[in-house]
Amino acid sequence: MPDFYQHDLVTAIHDLRTGQQSRLEEMVRDAAKDNRIGLVLPVTASDMRAEPFDVIVKELADADYIDTICVSLGVAPDQKDYDETVAKIAPLGDRAKVLWTDGPEVQSIYSELIDAGIQVSTPGKGRSVWTAFGYLLADPRIDTFVLHDCDIVDYDRLLLTRLCLPMVHPALDFEFCKAYYARVTDRMHGRVVRLLVNPLVRALRLMYPSSEFVRFLASFRYPLSGEFSLTRNLARTNRIPSDWGLEVGTLAEVYRNTSLKRVCQTDLCRLYEHKHQALSLEEKNTGLIRMANDIITTIYRTLASQGVIMSSDSFITLRANYLRTAQNCIRQYAADALVNDLQYDRHTEETTIDAFADCVTTAAELYRNDPSGAGAIPNWTRVRAAFPDLTQRLRDIAN
């Protein structure tokens, strides 16, 4: 989106339609000689068999500036899932390996960790990412870790290039880079960001104007994007949530572990399209409702860890503030959709906001009943202190 607007605490790297992919790739390729890049691809068996994954593999074949690729395969209980994934990434050569998180060897490692009091029992994207980071940490040459999802319908290497360049270019000094984009087809998508996270963060800023963390969250144009890059040091020191709070929890860890001037967000210059979660209003433990509850409780727990006191009255006020703010957002989205000739179902948007408002209350109950929650997976600094050879064992397992 060609604008110059900077969002408060976090540097925004815009797409001004002036950067040519070949030139950007040349810069990354040159910088990667001294700052090697490891790419994490968390994928499920179903996504591995879908068309976008084939496109991603084809594009990555020419991304010679990526030193190591770790395909972290989860939700894949059968040996055939693993074998098919290994066959699919064969064009990427020896630099690409599959780490089968449901396989017996990795499951054995998880059991050892659980017996030692390190909780990695919750399966999901968070655990897959954490395991892949361990794999990359075994190689001391890798300085930059990059992650993107594997269900991106319109994937091309420019996405990867723009994630890598802010982290590796010697003239820049960032430790974390988050992607942003517009999720649009013939209508607006990204309901959890548009209708929950953004208005909720605005409501929190009204209630807690002195909270720098809330201000930090408000600086991101798409805080739930699954694409980011970070330094080796942050990959080692950040804890990783194992539930749907992964993206917000990652931002909380970045806020805790690095200087804010070393955080940026980059425009991936596309109308981003990937699969959509079902709203499932009747099923509170699935789809977007489950995601919303996990995200909100992660925010509550992060604020509590920073000394913010939230009472029952606070949650009542927050719900009211959220509803008013979200309703104002609907008026803005309706105008945007009309001028851009997009379909816009205002009634469904209003219904979704009502459901998310209930999540604000439900998450408050979950938080009060369990203020600490299941907790994030411990960082790799702690794990390697207890199991010094664990990252190398992961590297030996991968094929």
If you had to describe this structure to a student in words, what would you say it looks like?
By secondary structure, the chain is an alpha/beta fold. It has a single domain, classed as Alpha-Beta Complex (Spore Coat Polysaccharide Biosynthesis Protein SpsA, Chain A). 50% of the residues lie in helices and 13% in strands. It contains 16 helices and eight strands. It has helices at 21-31, 45-48, 51-60, 79-88, 104-115, 125-137, 157-168, 191-207, 212-218, 232-237, 246-257, 287-305, 312-339, 346-369, 380-386, 390-397; strands at 11-13, 36-44, 68-74, 96-100, 142-147, 176-182, 228-231, 263-271. Strands 1-8-6-7-5-2-3-4 form an eight-stranded mixed β-sheet, with helices on both faces. α12 (287-305) crosses α14. The chain is globular. It starts with 10 loop residues before the first strand and ends with a helix. The mean pLDDT is 93.
